[in-house]
Amino acid sequence: MSRSLKHVAIREYVRSLVEGSAPGTAAPSERDLVDRFGVARMTVRQALDALVSEGVLERFPGRGTFVAAPRRTASGVTGFSEEMARRGIVADSRTLAADQLPAGENLARALQVPAGIPVVHWRRLRTADGRPVCLTDAYLDRTRVPGLLESLPTSLYDDLAARGLRPSWAEDMLAAATATPEEAALLEVPSGAAVLRHHRRALAGDAVVEVSRTVYRGDAYTLNVQLCS
Amino acid sequence: MSRSLKHVAIREYVRSLVEGSAPGTAAPSERDLVDRFGVARMTVRQALDALVSEGVLERFPGRGTFVAAPRRTASGVTGFSEEMARRGIVADSRTLAADQLPAGENLARALQVPAGIPVVHWRRLRTADGRPVCLTDAYLDRTRVPGLLESLPTSLYDDLAARGLRPSWAEDMLAAATATPEEAALLEVPSGAAVLRHHRRALAGDAVVEVSRTVYRGDAYTLNVQLCS
DNA sequence: TAGTGGTCTAGACCACTAT
DNA sequence: TAGTGGTCTAGACCACTAG
């Protein structure tokens, strides 16, 4: 080890001690670690601070340091396939279009590409347990997903992940509306039925990787979101 | 000041220095702060550590400490008043009911209270720029919000914050549906118009502080969400 | 009362950056 | 070369908790 970084060594030692332990299990006290590693207490505290801010440990003044209960996590950025899998539902989809279209002004701005250049367009009718649930139009910067249209993946988000473009950030808009006749026909609902419109702009780092517009059947889909602040 | 907490004083001093500064602006160096406050360097570092982990400052070894570019933040847990204010819209509301009702089974479970005990119920018709936008039924554990019904606040979330119960976590469900005749009348839309149903369970720490059901006019409201993972 | 974490001191050496 | 943050030491006193 070229650079020792004692606080890292201590941190990883404690992490390995603690991983798999039940919440509430006592971690070594700061002074124990001082003795064991022969370091100053500030160094131990630096190590434990990291684990506390990671949510691995909790400190209670006067009592000690303990394994923290797993944190609640906000819902991440997931695609339809994942979301359905999480609910234990068999998701499937039928591709209605997979082509390239010149980007209109709004789309171009959202995708951060020049207006008028062709972008990848993929339209799918998605089903859950065999029943139509939603209609998705996904738009992507063709330079980021070469070959996508030639071999369409099962899950767009898995494919993006494989390209190192897994969205880590999404801006979503949700609104209730009524189905257009075309949407109604595809979703097999009466024209004018209530639908949930969902627009998404998904980013990986600073790059916009997907802009999508989805229409969900109001009677067949509920969106769940966990928020934190 | 009964307890000085030097690192807090230093942290807030730096925060006030820095707030409003452009990203990239240099913050005082650690040794400057040592001189200014007459403290040890570890104390200064403790103060700056907090601002760094808050995302206010960034450190660059060998260069210095600088104001960080604003982080992308996921949308927090906000109430309607805040949300409208953020959009620059004048929000108002009319109380339709403010009473206590025995909790049904589902509501009791969601609120973590025994079934059948009375819970606070507050129904409001909310308007934006004078037009009806949504109808909200909020349910709260009466023991957590004594006096709420006697003097109804303008903003529920502000009131909760004042009680130390600001929600920091919410589980939301969203679905499109059609308005019931009663909802339609209050929202001033035709019966059967598309509406967005929004159920929320808001928590502060481990305590459920609010369970609410909101019906938004589909033509008057779009929900925006930012997600990260 | 013994042990814990919270806070703080007054130094030190290092690698790195900018000039 | 001067200044910066990164790491580390060897103590100290405090308030709090548990037995």
Number of strands of chain A: 9
What is the number of helical segments of chain A per DSSP (H or I, 4+ residues)? 7
The fraction of residues assigned to DSSP E strands of chain A is 25-35%
Considering residues with a beta carbon less than 8 A from a beta carbon on another chain, report the largest interface and each chain's count.
A-B, 36 and 36 residues
Q: Could you tell me the mean pLDDT of chain A?
A: 92
* CATH architecture verdict of the largest domain in chain A: 3-Layer(aba) Sandwich
Q: Low-confidence spans of chain A: pLDDT under 50, at least 5 residues?
A: none
Shape descriptor of chain A: elongated
Order of helices and strands of chain A: HHHEEHEHEEHEHEEE
- Provide the spatial order of strands within the biggest beta sheet of chain A: 3-4-5-8-7-6
| CATH class value of the largest domain in chain A | Alpha Beta
| Biggest β-sheet strands, sense, barrel of chain A | 6 strands, antiparallel
Question: What would you say about this model in short?
Answer:
The structure is a homodimer of 229-residue chains. By secondary structure, chain A is an alpha+beta fold. Chain A has helices spanning 6-18, 30-37, 41-54, 80-86, 105-111, 156-162, 181-187; strands at residues 57-60, 64-67, 91-102, 118-128, 131-140, 169-178, 194-204, 207-217, 223-228.
